[in-house]
Amino acid sequence: MGEPATVPRRGYARLAADESREDYSLRYAPHSYRRWSPTMVASTALGGIAYLADFAIGASIVFTYGFTSGIASILTAATIIFLTGIPIARACATYGLDMDLITRGAGFGYFGSTLTSLIYASFTFIFFALEGSIMAQAMHQALHIPLPVGYLLTTLIVIPIVFRGMGALAKVQAWTQPIWLIGLALPFVVLAFEAPDSWGAFASFGGTEGAGSGFDWIGYGLGTGVALSLIAQIGEQADYLRFMPAKTDENRRRWNLAVLAAGPGWVVIGAAKQIGGAFLAFVALGAVGKTHALEPIAPQIEALKPWLGSVALPAAALFVVISQIKINVTNAYSGSLSWSNFFSRVTHRHPGRVWYIFLNLAIALALMEMNMFAALNKLLGFYSNVGIAWIAAVAADLVINKPLGLSPRYIEFKRAYLHPVNPAGFGAMVIASAVSIVAFSGVFGEVAEAFSTFIACGLALVLCPLLAWLTGGRYYLARRNPVNGPDADVPDITATHLCASCETAYELPDIADCPVRAGAVCSLCCSLDAECGDVCRKAPTGEPVLMPLPTVGGPAMGGTATGGTAVGDPTVGGPRPLLQNSHKRR
After folding, report:
1. Is residue 439 within 8 Å of residue 448, measured between CB atoms?
2. Which residues contact residue 252 at a Cβ distance below 8 angstroms, ignoring those fewer than 6 apart?
3. 280 compared with 370, residue with greater pLDDT
4. CB neighbour list of residue 523: distance below 8 Å, 6 or more residues apart
5. Residues 6 or more apart whose Cβ sits within 8 Å of residue 171
6. Could you write out the DSSP letters of every residue in 210-235?
7. SS3 call for 414
8. What's the distance, CA 369 to chain centroid?
9. What is d(CA 374, CA 60) in angstroms, rounded to the nearest whole number?
10. For the residues 95-104, what does the mean pLDDT come to?
11. Distance between CA atoms of residues 246 and 493, nearest Å
12. Angle at the Cα of 318 (from 317 to 319), degrees rounded to 5?
């Protein structure tokens, strides 16, 4: 490709360069960093679903639509979330990529996934605000802290933990898990002894809005829409799953179980919590009234009173605070990743993941001060139309397109090999969400309004493979990946190349061949380059670049890749392919 371009070395801000805090936020998580066992990754991921929004959401659904329709809604939504989450969880754990990077290669394109980064970021700050409101309510009841002050405290308390990254999050989840499990189970144990007939009465509960205890299709559809707002939770699970160690013959069973439990498995616990939260709210309804029954702290107190008496309030408050810290560190962490992905593509700048923590928390704090808790059902019902269109389109690519050969059989996430927008996934999501939002607004009638989320899911599942077939799959890859694509020969996927831009060694999945640098560049330097003109994706400049052989067993992330033999060196037999390897990657 000629002489290397004279381009200054890229330097990163101190926080952006510190991977102990950065956690490879915009790139592939290398095998050298995945030092946790499958069980540890799974337990950390499941620790993040300690949130009590499930209690509030379940209670709100059953209070509004009655027991039969409400429970059917919760179980239907859980089934959809579980099924769509299986392929996504496996892809994230297999490829070491977060939800944004998976979305890029699963039918959306490099800039197409920018929109989904915003969708995901909105999920994290909406639910941070919801969880923070619940914690502030507990502080208000236990310590008489004014709600506005409580909102601020719930926001500030997570910053030191999230700032330190995955290592700190894993410790917090592990240390708080025993207390949380006791606090979760105790109210139900008390009621089993003190009010054994409550479940029977709950089964005939007709709600507080006159819905009745029988089944109603409209209520069922609307309730499912509210419960489906949680479908983007798989993105937060993916932020942990990308650190899953490589699957081997020795750990295969543990790996599969851990991915299933920590990925789609979260919704099994989530659905149980929604039903349990609705039950606790029903039992407390007569004592505290509808408004307070929908706030998880009040039903907790009422359930514990027969055994704990005056200690019920501080015990319930402690449980609520621990639960909300466990989930909001995850919300803040995932939000920082999502905002990083968005702004790195839009601005070609990356000051570091930690700075976006403050942006995410500022938006969440504003929502709390605006009392978003009061508009819970409408807000979540609207959001679910967009969220499910996105997740269903990604799942369709992984489950339908790839097995049928409509898309590449691997996930490509690097800018150098992707089209800006892929109409297969991106088009499916936009069309499905637009139609479902119009339906949700009531334009197509009452039935379509109630089942708008089903419309979004069905359209996305059908349109993604249809558009991939109509376009011949040509918008998935702008050019072949000769570094670690399915046709490349690689001796070891953990082999490293030295990035010609930042001069740091990275494993092969994080490397692209760059004609501007006349060598290897890491995925983040590739994303942040604002002056290359994307020549790698244009003929004739987009031909594969000759690079040294990768270093096997060399240092990664911060080390120097040395010892590679230059491809085309006449002393070793003349020109050779980009990589000289012993076997093909399967």
Report:
1. yes
2. none
3. 280
4. 26, 27, 28, 413, 414, 415, 506, 510, 511, 512
5. none
6. T--SS--HHHHHHHHHHHGGGGGHHH
7. coil
8. 25
9. 11
10. 93
11. 11
12. 90
